């Protein structure tokens, strides 16, 4: 059975939920053990907290920790993500990337410390501060975890703050396209770049964004300067997804293929408030997944703030899991 030292770890619980013809019926639950008493145990599952009386527990045990991705896998994915969201102004510190885009999004206006900066860590951070000061912007650094833990420690010592944690999530495209309720593609996008579900409007994939699509992006990201248009369009292989009904744009999304053709990057998946809870976001994702698979990509990735619980829950249902996380660090004023 479990002990107090198991609190905080992932466990699997088999519990008795009934009796049929004199035989017990079992149900399994997987989650983090958050409380253990003499009478009950509580676990945090993907569906919420579950409180189980100890008398109903048939078997419970700890689950081995999930294997973390290698440093090279984190670097590969971070570089594919950078390629999918290209800042118009760029610099380098050895392998590290410096990016500027008139302040439009943290990803495009922060340093990416992957690889060797070709100088001691304190000197590298000094150089970042000078570079961003020269561009009239507050210095920011994206720290992929756990890869950039030493960088984070140096920034902590300098009083840098952190924005909310971002999850970098991935899924094999075969998983996205194996769902029995997916949009029907018949081997790929339909003629004219449209994918249609029998019960809903078409998901249209275009090589350029419409003005309505851009308006949605501007509303979500707070304006749309020229640098933003560069970020959105300066990728060789990309598609812009749109769902219209009665002339009204209901949902959008953006897909890119980068990382030597392996990675489909998903971004700006958005559904208007009046059209939510109709499965449109999932259909946009799957339409882009079909296009990405046709382009030769094998996996999809996206970036979502951990606090955006609605989006995280949707992506979990689609099969996404967290590959790694990052923090956007911001230098103190002055």
UniProtKB/TrEMBL annotation:
Q: Where is this region: Disordered?
A: 179-199
Q: InterPro entries annotated for this entry? A: Acyl_CoA_acyltransferase, GNAT_dom, Rv0428c-like_C
Which positions fall inside the N-acetyltransferase domain?
A: 202-334
**UniProt cross-references to Pfam families, sorted A to Z:** Rv0428c_C
Name the record gives this protein? GNAT family N-acetyltransferase
């Amino acid at each position: 059975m479990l002990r107090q030292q198991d609190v905080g770890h992932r466990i699997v619980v088999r519990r008795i939920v009934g009796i049929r013809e004199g035989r017990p019926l079992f149900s399994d639950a997987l989650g983090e053990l958050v409380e253990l008493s003499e009478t009950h145990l509580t676990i945090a599952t993907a569906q919420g907290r579950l409180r189980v009386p100890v008398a109903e527990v048939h078997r419970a045990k700890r689950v081995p920790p999930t294997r973390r991705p290698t440093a090279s896998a984190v670097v590969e994915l971070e570089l594919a993500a950078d390629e999918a969201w290209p800042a118009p102004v760029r610099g380098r510190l050895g392998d590290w990337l410096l990016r500027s885009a008139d302040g439009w999004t943290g990803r495009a206006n922060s340093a990416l410390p992957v690889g060797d900066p070709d100088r001691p860590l304190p000197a590298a951070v000094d150089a970042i501060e000078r570079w961003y000061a020269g561009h009239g912007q507050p210095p920011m650094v994206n720290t992929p975890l756990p890869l950039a833990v030493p960088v984070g420690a140096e920034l902590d010592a300098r009083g840098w703050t952190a924005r909310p944690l971002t999850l970098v999530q991935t899924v094999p495209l075969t998983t996205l396209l194996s769902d029995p309720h997916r949009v029907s593609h018949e081997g790929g996008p339909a003629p004219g770049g449209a994918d249609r579900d029998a019960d809903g409007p078409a998901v249209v994939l275009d090589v350029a964004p419409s003005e309505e699509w851009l308006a949605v992006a501007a509303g979500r990201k707070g304006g749309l300067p020229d640098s933003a248009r560069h970020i959105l369009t300066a990728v060789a292989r990309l598609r812009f997804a749109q769902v219209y009904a009665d002339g009204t744009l209901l949902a959008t999304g953006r897909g890119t293929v980068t990382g030597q053709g392996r990675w489909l990057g998903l971004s700006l998946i958005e559904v208007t408030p009046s059209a939510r809870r109709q499965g449109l976001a999932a259909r946009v994702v799957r339409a882009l997944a079909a296009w990405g698979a046709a382009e030769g990509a094998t996996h999809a990735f996206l970036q979502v703030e951990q606090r955006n619980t609605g989006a995280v829950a949707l992506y979990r249902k689609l099969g996404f899991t967290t590959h790694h996380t990052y923090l956007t660090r911001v230098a103190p004023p002055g």
